[in-house]
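Re: the 284-residue chain
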Amino acid sequence: MKKRNIWILVIIIVVLIGGGVGYYYFNNQNSSKTTQVIKKSKPKKIKKKVNPNKSQINIVAVGDSLTQGVGDSKKVGGGYVTRLKQDIAKKYKVKTNAYNYGVSGDTSTQIISRIKSDRKMHQDLPKADVITVTVGGNDFMHLLQKKGIDLTETDITNEEKQFDVRLKNLLDDLRYYNSDAPIYLIGIYNPFSIYLSNVKNAKTAFINWNKASAQVASEEKLTYFVDINNLYQTKKVDKEAKKTGTNPYLYNKDHFHPNGTGYDMMTAKVFEEVSKTTKDWLIK
């Protein structure tokens, strides 16, 4: 009886050991399979595509005498357009071309007419990566010539409202020929502070003119406003102007256009805005 009990006990132990080994083996196999499944389902690292920079940049500059570069030093020439081309090429190590469609004396109406009729401009605008515009200075000059010393802030405000309509048409016309390139609209500045001392709040009128232009630009696709109104009218300039009657940053033959230093300052403002928006024109 005792032997029988011993054998039963041995059999139970063998069964338990066998079951334990089987359970361990079964679980180990499942664990291994699970591990394999996890390894297989681990997502692969996706390499982010890095868009390279363009190998060539084309600037198309449209506008008046500021785009043409009137008043610039003979050493550089071409006003802010030449300088902008050089700055882009130097900083971004990219071949840069510039096509200058600036005509001295052009008002907004005349620039609009050229955009519609100039066949060469029609060829260059579609390939532009950057478009710059100067407009408005001659519109104001015509108003000044018309009103003379009787010019009032109201006269300036009324002209500004009419100009805004023409400015929108001008920008829309440019966009017709190029839907992708960013447009940099350069505002007007007040070179008349010496001559308009009799006009009450003349400085405010120029500020409001630029604000209105900036608003028009903000409503257009990829259009940025570059404010240069304060560049040539500082306390130092006003102080010197009272003594000499001239502005050290303006062309001494007409006291209206920037000189070489003035164009350096203008270019710096334009290039600052262009550099902040490289995603719009430099990246492929």
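The two ends are 94 Å apart (CA to CA).
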